[in-house]
Amino acid sequence: MHHVLVDHWSQGASPLHARDARAKILVLLVFLIVLATTPADAYVTLAIDAAVLVSGILLAGLPPISVLVRAAGILPFSAAFGAITWLAGDGWRAVALIEKSYLSAVAVLLLVGTTPLPRLLSGLEALGTPRILVLLAQFLYRYLFVISEQAQHLQLAAACRGGSSGRRQSRFRAAAGALAVLFARSYYRAEGIHRAMLSRGFGGRFSLLNPMRFGALDAVFTGAIVALLIMARVQ
Amino acid sequence: MHIPDNFLATPVWATLDAISAGAVGVTIRRAGRDLPDTRIPLLGVMGAFVFAAQMINFPVGAGTSGHLVGGALLACTIGPAPAVLVMTTILAIQAFVFQDGGVLALGANVFNMAVAGVLAGYLPFRLLGASRRGLAIFTGGFLSVLVSGSLALSELLISGVRMPRALVFTSFGLFAMNALIEGAITISVVQALDKLNPGFVQKPAASTGRILVVCGCVALLLGAAGFLIASSAPDAIQNLGQTLGISTQPAFQTPMANYTAGKFESAWLRRATAGLTGLLLICGLCAAGARMIARRRSA
Amino acid sequence: MKPIVEIRDLHFRYEDGTLALDGVNFALYPGETVALLGANGSGKTTFVLQLNGILEGIGSVEVCGLPVTKENLPPIRSKIGMVFQDSDEQLFMPTVLEDVAFGPLNQGCTPEQAMEKARVALRQVGMEHALGKAPYHLSAGEKRKVALAGVLAMQPEILVLDEPTTFLDPPAQRNLVHLLRELPQAKLIVTHDVHFARALAQRAAFFEKGKLVADGPIEEIAERFQWNYSALDADLRYSAQRRF
Hints:
Low-confidence stretches of chain B: 260-274
Radius of gyration of chain C: 19 Å
Order of helices and strands of chain C: EEEHEEHEHHHHEHEHEEHH
Largest sheet of chain B: 2 strands, antiparallel
Largest sheet of chain C: 6 strands, mixed
CATH architecture of the domain at 5-88 and 157-242 in chain C: 3-Layer(aba) Sandwich
Strand order of the largest sheet of chain B: 1-2
Distance between the termini of chain B: 43 Å
Shape of chain B: globular
Strand content of chain C: 15-25%
Number of helices of chain B: 10
Number of strands of chain C: 10
Oligomer: heterotrimer
Mean pLDDT of chain C: 92
CATH class of the domain at 5-88 and 157-242 in chain C: Alpha Beta
Mean pLDDT of chain B: 79
Structural class of chain C: alpha/beta
Strand content of chain B: under 5%
CATH topology of the domain at 5-88 and 157-242 in chain C: Rossmann fold
CATH architecture of the domain at 10-206 in chain B: Orthogonal Bundle
Structural class of chain B: mainly alpha
Helix content of chain B: 55-70%
Number of strands of chain B: 2
Largest interface: A-B, 81 and 66 residues
Number of helices of chain C: 10
Strand order of the largest sheet of chain C: 6-7-8-3-9-10
Radius of gyration of chain B: 20 Å
């Protein structure tokens, strides 16, 4: 699954991986905002933005082709809209749409490919994201893989019992039944988690463990990249 | 529909980010008591369930299959406020981990699917659920997808994304079809859930004066659908006017004539500002009107 | 010697009315290992959930001299460490280290203290290398060991394990047996696996339809209730004979 690969990338040990999550998030936001406000024909700015991303990928030790291919998932959608915009006579805008949406996807991939999700969540919380959303994301991500596997098994089991033949209505109902079973199993799993939490003395409030330190290197990193991006934008 | 980055105009995504942040913040504060830390694993797990459930194929004919989106299903099982938060979390994870939907556009996607979509999915259940449960649940599923799709489409149009009329109508048609599928899947799953454990789906009490919320949603729908139809080509009335030789020039100048506002250089920024301002005005008026009605009712 | 766990006349009924425990009397002494045997649905798991207050029945339940009441739950949950059958339900934190540190944090340790206790516990079960890993990257056996570490980090006096061999292959089972034999705590092991039980426990308690019907040396109990493979061998020999 896609997120397993990204998860694997995020476990690396490059200088980029070592940066504080808050620094990387801030840099990403500045990058995206600068990119979004860059006019269609500012190709120098766009080239600099692309160069920043490529250097990021190389610094992080991520497999470049793999990253660029993964980000290309956005292309069918933006290419379609790009084609329409081109046909409507707005050529520059069409190209910009495709370029910018692709660069945005690479940028986001670079963030999650160099930051394990627990640390990313801690960084988001430190930057002001409500605690409950951070905790929700933590639990969701933890059980995403487990429950997705279960869903695949249920689909397979239904298919084995004559899934691709049979009347559409009964297959529809079978799928609904599988979904209901998945719901029930998830619900009871949550009850089991609750029991396990209580058994280890849960007192009513989670305390997150991730110690973060925003060091000098993080400040330099953030300052330098933000300055570069803004200078590229305003020239 | 997850809108990627760089499709929406800056005023559009920035405003929607602010609106979503506000809406989610209000939801968290209002639901505070009902969301102790002990409930979080359940909500997280149900979020993972929705993610996984989106993978299950529902055959809908001609070799195609539909999938559950899940806003309405979540709303009538875990409750509307938790559903808003769970859908928000799902969208955030989809944006960051799967690059499905933009990061700057997250506010727009959250507004469309986690806030408006869940609200539209829950309201029929709340209003009709006691008396005509099956219809209520189907309508909830249907509206949740239709509203979020329409809003997405409107936002793209307001941002000046070129969409020929045919494409707009085709897209809307696709959303309508997906909406029907969502309704069908949601009611099927609820029926299956009832057989497993009748306690899974909430039992809505017979509702009384939540007209405020109804007005708010109708306003949203109108605002969303209204901008779909906004087009610079002369419409039927103007056409009629031209044929009959009656002047179609406005009698007086208004601040946002021809759907442009502000002194921006870019044409689409002007239209975007106008469009959004219009939407906010309509929402505001309806909300104010609803409050007046409510006050008169309770007086 | 005073029992470390003492239960007198325990009754428990589920919400739907089914009688799950019907007058159970039991005592566990420091340092001993007792296997809880019985058919599915006989009440074994319901029984152990009473010990740390997850379920509340009628009767006397005392752990380390403390009656199991709401006020006593925090210290009791520190003294009894429970390892559940489904490790995925037990390892709910994003990484191994955070999960094992969860218990100590709840006991009032600072984050540094909690992490240190977690490391020690992980070292004890041989999983220190997996500190930063996410639980879904671990095998069933590894998850089981981490779950055990999560409980050991709280320094309990009693260990309760519910079907610990579930999903474990024979090498993992052997590993677990050796691990458990090293631990000094009193242990209650709910299991269907008679070999596993025999390797660890001297005594067994047999549950039947919510009643504790027998309590004694494990070999006797296994023989008496045909709760072993020799019964299966006897069946197979009998049906082989009948064919001639």
